[in-house]
Amino acid sequence: MTDFMNANGGLILAFLGSAISVGFAGWGSVIGVGMTGVAASGVVTEDPSNFGKTLLLQALPGTQGIYGLLIGFIVWLKIGVFGDALVSLTLQQGWVILFACIPMGLVGFTSAIYQGKAAAAGCAIVAKRPEELSKGMVFAAMVETYAVLALLASFLMLWFGVKL
Amino acid sequence: MAIVKMKKAHIIALQSEKQNLIKMLQKFGGLHVINIEEQITEEKYLELTADSDNANVSQLEARLSQVKYSLDFINKYDKAKKSSQKARLHVSDSEYMEYINSNEELDAIFNQCKEIDLKNTELKNRETKLTNLIQLLQPWNSLESNFQDIKTSRNTVAVIGYVSSVYAEDFKRDFLITGELAYYEEVSNDKENTYILLVFHRDLEEQITQIQKQFGWSKSGFTDLIGSARENIVKLDAEAKELQHDKEVLATKAEQLVKHKSQLGIMQDIFTIERDKASIVSNFGKTEKTFVLSGWIPVKYAEKLEEVIKSVTQSYVLDLEDPADGEEPPVMLQNAAIVKPAEFVTEQYSLPHPYGIDPNAIMLPFYVIFFGMMVSDAVYGIVLAVATAIALIVMKPEGGLKKILGLIFMGGLSTLFWGALFGGWAGDLIKIRPLMFNPLDDPMKMLGLCLAMGVVHLFVGIGLQAYKNIRNGNVMDAIYDQGFWFTLIIGIMLLFLPSTAVVGKYMAIIGAAGMVLFAGRSKKNIVMRLLSGVLSLYGLTGFLGDVLSYLRLFALGLATGVIATVVNSMALMLKGSVVGYIFMVIFLIFGHVFNIAINTLGAYVHSSRLQYVEFFGKFYEGEGKAFKPFTVKTKYIKQQ
């Protein structure tokens, strides 16, 4: 068992990390985008001309999933998923990659959900005053700030913390 | 960058000339009329009463709703639709009067539309009824008996109905147990129900009712139908076809009305103009022979206003005055054509306060630079710039759309610029060496660049607040609040560089001391004053937070670049055969278009946020009311 972990543990942890980043951030986006879609449909029922505006709002909580994929992609790039063979990682390197992925997964998950709530409420703004769309978008974007910071944190940790 | 200076105009003229004056003022289109009623209570207006033209307004409103109804109705049948929106039409004065008096013609069109609409609804209702009935009859298609024969006679009971198919077998068994005087015929069945004809002797009725209840029997009743189900279905189908035909006839009739479309469009414009003219009167004050109106007018139009009035009448009073203290005129922005797009960003936040600063000219370069840094791909920049340029030239949009397209056009150019600096050309698809550095190779440099951008942006914001203080004559406020703040922050930044550390130290100390001593100067109590001075130093953490917020420039730029790279490497996996290359190209196009869309949205939102939260937070006063002149509003008529 110990031998197995020493030989493969690094890679396993790295894959776990990328799975957390892609999986959780994507999960959050699914919830956020879905929530906004429900609210947006309600608005469009009343006035179909608001489709474009509410679609913009619906796209906002979707970015976390993309950020998550981005971090996952950087991990795969580092460990040679796209190359000819996987790079062999030490356990320590594996742990570093795993922890580097956690900010993106965790913050991506929660911020997408809460951004979805803000964007869904933004749909209510569009319903009553379509010309005030930007305000709704900014409220939602305030939440995204932390996903952006987490993306940066995860990226910097991966880029500088893992030398292969 | 300017907020246009306004004067308040009071106009007094004779009632007999009111209509003409209103007409000319509407054409002039530069006066923001305000309601005088609130001021009538003041002493100097004691002789005035509120004027109005309500009878006319409601009559015109009624006309307008007729026109709108007809136009909406006709649009449903207009195959050309909006895409072929014709050029605006010219309407001469005599034609204009003709249209105003064309009530009978409008009534005729309106009534036709309404009639067709009503008939159409009726036909639709009948059609629904028919299809429902046909659907109900369908299961009985193979029943030979006529519906009028299925009834209770002296000795027998005949009845049709259905039970759930699940119970059909059990029902049949229990029913037949009752003896030879009961006849059972299954007519048809589907997934849910089995349709049955029952004939039995009257004596069995009670017993059979029990069985029916037990298995949830539902009686089918076609009591008002004569003949067999099949005959009825054939008849109803024919009827439905006839209905269909009637509908088509109606549709052709409606299509014939489409020729009135341009006429109705003109009417809509004309009645809107007339309605506006009538409803503006409710803002006026009147005496027996005269009327009074007040409004805001940009200073540069003031002379023109006098000319307009003179062209109507010689007996008038025009009084122009500067806004009184505490009075807030409406806000109109005047900017060079290149700065106009930035107004969209400001308007979405809030128009500037009439005595505040119009931030557009200063904000625009930052907005465009940030937008470019966040998308930061030369190819994407070219796509955005070309696409918006085409849209601007072909569509010739007005108002908000024109502004936002202009904004993205400039953002696209900036994106091209930054993309070239960072070496991003559709991700890594086209390999061109970066003119400056690649953020992925040198993230520390990129972080530094972003933070520096942030500091400059924030300093400009604080500088504008200082400018505002000085302009308002509060020079000392500018020194105490912004001057010391600058000294402190610059000092702290210099501390980090070895060569300037000593200067930095003293600057920071002077700045901090100044803030402790003067930030709380409004407090009387010396202890409270020093305490709030010390507390003001806490603003440093806020400043740090603001600066760190600009790291999003890096992160969003990173997102664009890496997604583009992902798209490229996934597309390259497809290459090989001819089909593979075709799919590769398709995938590349879709992937990059998606990336452009999502990142442009992100760049727009986040660049706006940096202006709204970080930049505007430092100096901006919003809540200006928009300048809305009394003017001619048309959609179809060409304006002279």
The CATH topology of chain A is given as: Four Helix Bundle (Hemerythrin (Met), subunit A)
Low-pLDDT ranges of chain A? none
Number of helices of chain B: 21
Q: What oligomeric arrangement do these chains adopt?
A: heterodimer
Span of the ends, CA to CA of chain A: 25 Å
Highest CATH level, the class of chain A: Mainly Alpha
Biggest protein-protein interface? A-B, 31 and 27 residues
Number of domains of chain A: 1
| Main sheet characteristics of chain A | none
Radius of gyration of chain A: 19 Å
Residue share in helix of chain B = 55-70%
* Mean pLDDT across every amino acid position of chain B: 87
Give the secondary structure arrangement, pairings included.
The complex is a heterodimer of chains A (164) and B (640).
Chain A: H1 2-46, H2 51-59, H3 63-79, H4 91-128, H5 133-161
Helix pairs in contact in A: 1-2, 1-3, 1-4, 2-4, 2-5, 3-4, 3-5, 4-5
Chain B: E1 2-3, E2 6-14, H1 18-28, E3 32-34, H2 37-40, E4 49-50, H3 54-77, H4 93-100, H5 103-137, E5 156-164, H6 165-177, E6 182-189, E7 193-201, H7 205-214, E8 218-219, H8 229-257, H9 261-280, E9 285-286, E10 290-298, H10 302-312, E11 316-321, E12 333-334, H11 340-349, H12 360-375, H13 378-395, H14 399-422, H15 443-471, H16 475-495, H17 501-518, H18 526-536, H19 539-548, H20 552-572, H21 578-619
Antiparallel strand pairs in B: 1-12, 2-10, 2-11, 3-10, 4-9, 5-7, 5-8, 6-7, 9-10
Helix pairs in contact in B: 1-10, 3-5, 3-9, 5-8, 11-12, 11-14, 12-14, 12-20, 12-21, 13-14, 15-16, 15-21, 16-17, 17-18, 20-21
